[in-house]
Protein backbone atom coordinates (compact mmCIF):
# COMPACT_ATOMS: atom_id res chain seq x y z
CA UNK A 1 0.00 0.00 0.00
CA UNK A 2 2.98 2.28 0.46
CA UNK A 3 4.05 1.97 -3.15
CA UNK A 4 1.73 4.66 -4.62
CA UNK A 5 2.87 7.13 -1.95
CA UNK A 6 6.54 6.39 -2.63
CA UNK A 7 5.94 6.65 -6.38
CA UNK A 8 4.18 10.00 -5.94
CA UNK A 9 7.05 11.29 -3.83
CA UNK A 10 9.55 10.14 -6.44
CA UNK A 11 7.59 11.79 -9.22
CA UNK A 12 7.42 15.01 -7.23
CA UNK A 13 11.19 14.85 -6.72
CA UNK A 14 11.79 14.24 -10.40
CA UNK A 15 9.56 17.18 -11.30
CA UNK A 16 11.45 19.42 -8.85
CA UNK A 17 14.80 18.28 -10.20
CA UNK A 18 13.55 18.77 -13.73
CA UNK A 19 12.47 22.31 -12.81
CA UNK A 20 15.89 23.06 -11.29
CA UNK A 21 17.58 21.51 -14.29
CA UNK A 22 15.61 23.73 -16.61
CA UNK A 23 16.64 26.84 -14.66
CA UNK A 24 20.26 25.71 -14.61
CA UNK A 25 20.12 24.98 -18.32
CA UNK A 26 18.73 28.44 -19.08
CA UNK A 27 21.42 30.05 -16.94
CA UNK A 28 24.08 28.01 -18.71
CA UNK A 29 22.77 29.06 -22.11
CA UNK A 30 22.72 32.72 -21.05
CA UNK A 31 26.27 32.45 -19.77
CA UNK A 32 27.35 30.75 -22.98
CA UNK A 33 25.85 33.50 -25.14
CA UNK A 34 27.42 36.11 -22.91
CA UNK A 35 30.81 34.44 -23.31
CA UNK A 36 30.34 34.27 -27.09
CA UNK A 37 29.47 37.97 -27.17
CA UNK A 38 32.59 38.79 -25.16
CA UNK A 39 34.74 36.75 -27.54
CA UNK A 40 33.12 38.33 -30.59
CA UNK A 41 33.55 41.80 -29.08
CA UNK A 42 37.18 41.06 -28.27
CA UNK A 43 37.85 39.85 -31.82
CA UNK A 44 36.13 42.92 -33.27
CA UNK A 45 38.20 45.20 -31.04
CA UNK A 46 41.38 43.47 -32.23
CA UNK A 47 40.32 43.99 -35.85
CA UNK A 48 39.56 47.64 -35.19
CA UNK A 49 42.99 48.13 -33.62
CA UNK A 50 44.90 46.53 -36.48
CA UNK A 51 43.35 46.30 -39.93
CA UNK A 52 40.30 48.56 -39.79
CA UNK A 53 40.31 52.12 -41.11
CA UNK A 54 41.53 54.23 -38.15
CA UNK A 55 38.58 56.64 -38.29
CA UNK A 56 36.12 53.73 -38.36
CA UNK A 57 37.93 52.36 -35.30
CA UNK A 58 37.58 55.74 -33.57
CA UNK A 59 33.82 55.70 -34.20
CA UNK A 60 33.50 52.09 -33.00
CA UNK A 61 35.31 52.72 -29.70
CA UNK A 62 33.52 56.05 -29.17
CA UNK A 63 30.16 54.24 -29.46
CA UNK A 64 31.36 51.49 -27.13
CA UNK A 65 32.43 54.06 -24.53
CA UNK A 66 29.00 55.70 -24.61
CA UNK A 67 27.49 52.34 -23.70
CA UNK A 68 29.99 51.74 -20.88
CA UNK A 69 32.47 54.55 -20.08
CA UNK A 70 34.10 52.47 -17.32
CA UNK A 71 35.63 49.97 -19.78
CA UNK A 72 39.33 50.85 -19.81
CA UNK A 73 39.98 48.51 -22.77
CA UNK A 74 37.60 50.58 -24.91
CA UNK A 75 39.21 53.80 -23.69
CA UNK A 76 42.60 52.38 -24.72
CA UNK A 77 41.16 51.37 -28.07
CA UNK A 78 39.89 54.90 -28.66
CA UNK A 79 43.24 56.44 -27.70
CA UNK A 80 45.21 54.04 -29.95
CA UNK A 81 42.83 54.58 -32.86
CA UNK A 82 43.08 58.37 -32.58
CA UNK A 83 46.88 58.10 -32.83
CA UNK A 84 46.57 55.74 -35.82
CA UNK A 85 44.22 58.26 -37.45
CA UNK A 86 46.88 60.97 -36.89
CA UNK A 87 44.46 62.86 -34.63
CA UNK A 88 47.31 63.37 -32.21
CA UNK A 89 45.89 66.18 -30.07
CA UNK A 90 42.76 64.13 -29.35
CA UNK A 91 44.94 61.06 -28.84
CA UNK A 92 46.96 62.80 -26.12
CA UNK A 93 43.76 63.74 -24.27
CA UNK A 94 42.45 60.17 -24.60
CA UNK A 95 45.68 58.62 -23.26
CA UNK A 96 45.73 61.12 -20.38
CA UNK A 97 42.23 59.94 -19.47
CA UNK A 98 43.30 56.29 -19.62
CA UNK A 99 46.25 56.87 -17.26
CA UNK A 100 43.87 58.30 -14.64
CA UNK A 101 41.43 55.37 -14.75
CA UNK A 102 41.29 52.47 -12.34
CA UNK A 103 43.33 49.62 -13.78
CA UNK A 104 45.77 51.88 -15.66
CA UNK A 105 49.24 50.38 -16.17
CA UNK A 106 52.78 51.60 -16.78
CA UNK A 107 52.34 50.74 -20.47
CA UNK A 108 49.47 53.24 -20.62
CA UNK A 109 51.89 55.93 -19.41
CA UNK A 110 54.41 54.86 -22.06
CA UNK A 111 51.68 55.21 -24.70
CA UNK A 112 50.87 58.68 -23.36
CA UNK A 113 54.55 59.62 -23.68
CA UNK A 114 54.52 58.33 -27.28
CA UNK A 115 51.49 60.51 -28.06
CA UNK A 116 53.13 63.55 -26.44
CA UNK A 117 56.28 63.07 -28.55
CA UNK A 118 54.14 62.87 -31.69
CA UNK A 119 52.53 66.15 -30.57
CA UNK A 120 55.96 67.73 -30.10
CA UNK A 121 55.61 68.05 -26.33
CA UNK A 122 59.04 66.62 -25.46
CA UNK A 123 59.23 68.17 -21.98
CA UNK A 124 55.99 66.59 -20.79
CA UNK A 125 56.87 63.30 -22.46
CA UNK A 126 60.12 63.20 -20.51
CA UNK A 127 58.26 63.85 -17.24
CA UNK A 128 55.79 61.04 -17.98
CA UNK A 129 58.64 58.61 -18.74
CA UNK A 130 60.48 59.66 -15.57
CA UNK A 131 57.42 58.62 -13.57
CA UNK A 132 57.33 55.13 -15.13
CA UNK A 133 58.88 52.62 -12.68
CA UNK A 134 62.38 51.45 -13.69
CA UNK A 135 61.13 47.87 -13.46
CA UNK A 136 58.95 48.47 -16.53
CA UNK A 137 61.54 47.47 -19.11
CA UNK A 138 60.01 47.31 -22.58
CA UNK A 139 61.22 48.02 -26.10
CA UNK A 140 58.79 50.89 -26.56
CA UNK A 141 59.77 52.55 -23.29
CA UNK A 142 63.51 52.53 -24.10
CA UNK A 143 62.95 53.58 -27.72
CA UNK A 144 61.08 56.64 -26.47
CA UNK A 145 63.72 57.30 -23.81
CA UNK A 146 66.32 57.29 -26.60
CA UNK A 147 64.32 59.75 -28.69
CA UNK A 148 63.91 62.10 -25.74
CA UNK A 149 67.64 61.93 -24.96
CA UNK A 150 68.36 62.64 -28.65
CA UNK A 151 66.13 65.71 -28.58
CA UNK A 152 68.23 67.08 -25.70
CA UNK A 153 71.54 66.08 -27.33
CA UNK A 154 72.34 63.77 -24.43
CA UNK A 155 74.25 61.46 -26.72
CA UNK A 156 75.60 58.96 -24.14
CA UNK A 157 72.15 58.43 -22.68
CA UNK A 158 70.67 58.12 -26.17
CA UNK A 159 73.21 55.47 -27.19
CA UNK A 160 72.58 53.52 -23.99
CA UNK A 161 68.81 53.57 -24.47
CA UNK A 162 69.06 52.64 -28.16
CA UNK A 163 71.30 49.70 -27.30
CA UNK A 164 68.85 48.43 -24.67
CA UNK A 165 65.90 48.86 -27.06
CA UNK A 166 67.65 46.86 -29.80
CA UNK A 167 68.15 44.02 -27.34
CA UNK A 168 64.47 43.96 -26.37
CA UNK A 169 62.97 43.32 -29.81
CA UNK A 170 63.18 40.71 -32.53
CA UNK A 171 62.54 43.38 -35.19
CA UNK A 172 65.12 46.09 -34.47
CA UNK A 173 65.34 47.61 -37.97
CA UNK A 174 63.36 50.78 -37.24
CA UNK A 175 65.19 51.56 -34.01
CA UNK A 176 68.55 50.91 -35.71
CA UNK A 177 67.48 53.40 -38.37
CA UNK A 178 66.61 55.96 -35.67
CA UNK A 179 69.94 55.33 -33.96
CA UNK A 180 71.76 55.75 -37.26
CA UNK A 181 69.96 59.04 -37.90
CA UNK A 182 71.04 60.20 -34.45
CA UNK A 183 74.66 59.44 -35.38
CA UNK A 184 74.16 61.25 -38.70
CA UNK A 185 73.01 64.43 -36.97
CA UNK A 186 76.11 64.29 -34.75
CA UNK A 187 78.38 64.07 -37.78
CA UNK A 188 79.47 60.50 -36.97
CA UNK A 189 78.99 59.35 -40.54
CA UNK A 190 80.86 56.04 -40.46
CA UNK A 191 78.92 54.85 -37.41
CA UNK A 192 75.69 56.03 -38.99
CA UNK A 193 76.53 54.08 -42.15
CA UNK A 194 77.09 50.92 -40.12
CA UNK A 195 73.77 51.26 -38.29
CA UNK A 196 71.82 51.92 -41.50
CA UNK A 197 73.43 48.84 -43.07
CA UNK A 198 72.46 46.79 -40.01
CA UNK A 199 68.88 48.07 -40.27
CA UNK A 200 68.68 47.04 -43.93
CA UNK A 201 70.03 43.57 -43.11
CA UNK A 202 67.20 43.23 -40.61
CA UNK A 203 64.56 44.56 -43.03
CA UNK A 204 65.55 45.03 -46.67
CA UNK A 205 62.21 46.72 -47.46
CA UNK A 206 63.00 49.72 -45.23
CA UNK A 207 63.55 52.41 -47.86
CA UNK A 208 64.14 55.15 -45.27
CA UNK A 209 67.22 53.29 -44.05
CA UNK A 210 68.45 52.87 -47.64
CA UNK A 211 68.04 56.59 -48.28
CA UNK A 212 69.78 57.47 -45.02
CA UNK A 213 72.61 55.08 -45.86
CA UNK A 214 73.22 56.92 -49.14
CA UNK A 215 73.23 60.26 -47.27
CA UNK A 216 75.79 58.91 -44.76
CA UNK A 217 78.05 57.66 -47.56
CA UNK A 218 77.71 60.91 -49.51
CA UNK A 219 78.66 62.87 -46.40
CA UNK A 220 81.99 61.00 -46.62
CA UNK A 221 82.16 61.84 -50.36
CA UNK A 222 81.50 58.23 -51.28
CA UNK A 223 79.23 58.60 -54.31
CA UNK A 224 78.80 54.91 -55.14
CA UNK A 225 75.61 53.04 -54.42
CA UNK A 226 75.92 50.44 -51.64
CA UNK A 227 75.38 46.77 -52.46
CA UNK A 228 71.88 46.36 -51.02
CA UNK A 229 68.57 45.00 -52.34
CA UNK A 230 66.79 47.63 -54.46
CA UNK A 231 64.43 47.71 -57.41
CA UNK A 232 64.86 50.01 -60.39
CA UNK A 233 62.70 52.79 -58.97
CA UNK A 234 64.52 52.69 -55.65
CA UNK A 235 67.86 52.78 -57.46
CA UNK A 236 66.81 55.94 -59.31
CA UNK A 237 65.59 57.57 -56.10
CA UNK A 238 68.81 56.74 -54.27
CA UNK A 239 70.88 58.16 -57.15
CA UNK A 240 68.78 61.33 -56.91
CA UNK A 241 69.45 61.58 -53.15
CA UNK A 242 73.16 61.04 -53.77
CA UNK A 243 73.18 63.72 -56.46
CA UNK A 244 71.58 66.30 -54.18
CA UNK A 245 74.03 65.42 -51.41
CA UNK A 246 76.97 65.85 -53.80
CA UNK A 247 75.68 69.22 -55.01
CA UNK A 248 75.18 70.36 -51.41
CA UNK A 249 78.83 69.51 -50.67
CA UNK A 250 80.00 71.50 -53.71
CA UNK A 251 80.61 68.50 -56.00
CA UNK A 252 78.33 69.91 -58.69
CA UNK A 253 79.62 68.01 -61.74
CA UNK A 254 79.37 64.72 -59.90
CA UNK A 255 75.84 65.71 -58.90
CA UNK A 256 74.89 66.43 -62.52
CA UNK A 257 76.17 63.05 -63.66
CA UNK A 258 74.26 61.30 -60.87
CA UNK A 259 71.08 63.15 -61.84
CA UNK A 260 71.48 62.02 -65.46
CA UNK A 261 71.96 58.44 -64.26
CA UNK A 262 68.88 58.70 -62.05
CA UNK A 263 66.78 59.95 -64.99
CA UNK A 264 68.03 57.13 -67.24
CA UNK A 265 67.47 54.51 -64.52
CA UNK A 266 63.94 55.41 -63.51
CA UNK A 267 61.35 53.23 -65.29
CA UNK A 268 59.08 56.27 -65.71
CA UNK A 269 59.55 60.02 -66.15
CA UNK A 270 61.52 61.23 -63.10
CA UNK A 271 60.24 64.79 -62.83
CA UNK A 272 62.11 65.75 -59.64
CA UNK A 273 65.49 64.73 -61.09
CA UNK A 274 64.74 66.38 -64.46
CA UNK A 275 63.82 69.62 -62.70
CA UNK A 276 67.00 69.58 -60.59
CA UNK A 277 69.23 68.91 -63.61
CA UNK A 278 67.53 71.62 -65.67
CA UNK A 279 68.03 74.15 -62.87
CA UNK A 280 71.75 73.30 -62.66
CA UNK A 281 72.31 73.45 -66.41
CA UNK A 282 70.52 76.80 -66.62
CA UNK A 283 72.93 78.20 -64.04
**Rg calc:** 30 Å
Residue fraction in strands: under 5%
In which range does the helix fraction lie?
over 70%
- Total number of β-strand segments? 0
Q: What value does the average pLDDT take?
A: 88
Description:
- It comes from Sulfitobacter mediterraneus.
- This is Tetratricopeptide repeat protein.
- InterPro entries: TPR-like_helical_dom_sf.
- It is a single chain.
- The chain has helices at residues 2-50, 54-67, 72-84, 88-99, 106-118, 122-130, 139-151, 155-167, 173-185, 189-202, 207-219, 232-248, 252-265, 271-281.
- Residues 1-21 and 28-39 have low confidence and may be disordered.
- The protein has 14 helices and no strands.
- It has a domain at 52-125: Tetratricopeptide repeat domain (Serine Threonine Protein Phosphatase 5, Tetratricopeptide repeat).
- With 283 residues, it is mainly α.
- Helix 7 (139-151) runs antiparallel to helix 8.
Helix-strand layout with pairing:
Blueprint: H1 2-50, H2 54-67, H3 72-84, H4 88-99, H5 106-118, H6 122-130, H7 139-151, H8 155-167, H9 173-185, H10 189-202, H11 207-219, H12 232-248, H13 252-265, H14 271-281
Helix pairs in contact: 2-3, 3-4, 4-5, 5-6, 5-7, 6-7, 7-8, 7-9, 8-9, 9-10, 9-11, 10-11, 11-12, 12-13, 13-14
